[in-house]
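Supplementary Methods. Inverse-folding protocol.

Structures were first reduced to a discrete structure-token string of length 158. This string, shown here, constituted the complete conditioning input.
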């Protein structure tokens, strides 16, 4: 089979894309066991983090969806499973009964409180070494890249 010719720009963007994916997957592989110890998946942890950082009144499921860049259907399923585990509860919106809010339960706050310090420690081990300016530069570059991709698709990055 003959090799297909790929121009340098295509090769460069493919290499960048694969590097981003590999970095994310390698970090995910390192933190996934921490979540598993608490019967959580990484997406469930993301929902708990969003709710822990939200106003005490909770978040609309659509807000969680936008923040995590996943579909509403995915958020519904995640919140269903977290609710079954007793970590999240749904509440009616105080001003709009058509809207449902998700909030952490006491147990959800406990689990978040247990996992968060371990999570931070693990991320510091994985990402904290090296030059702080380099980390800040990488963070800024990745946030900018995300914003550009979202803008190209007509979506906003939260």
């Amino acid at each position: 089979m003959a090799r297909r010719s790929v121009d340098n720009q295509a090769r460069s963007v493919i290499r960048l894309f694969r590097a981003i994916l590999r970095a994310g997957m390698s970090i995910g592989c390192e933190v996934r066991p921490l979540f598993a110890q608490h019967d959580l998946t990484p997406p469930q942890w993301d929902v708990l983090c969003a709710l822990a950082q939200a106003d005490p009144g909770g978040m609309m499921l659509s807000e969680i969806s936008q923040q995590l860049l996943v579909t509403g259907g995915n958020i519904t399923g995640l919140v269903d499973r977290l609710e079954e585990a007793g970590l999240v509860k749904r509440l009616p919106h105080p001003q709009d009964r058509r809207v449902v809010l998700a909030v952490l339960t006491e147990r959800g706050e406990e689990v978040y409180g247990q996992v968060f310090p371990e999570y931070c420690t693990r991320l510091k081990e994985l990402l904290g070494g090296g030059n702080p300016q380099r980390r800040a530069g990488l963070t800024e570059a990745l946030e900018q890249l995300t914003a550009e991709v979202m803008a190209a698709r007509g979506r906003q990055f939260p």
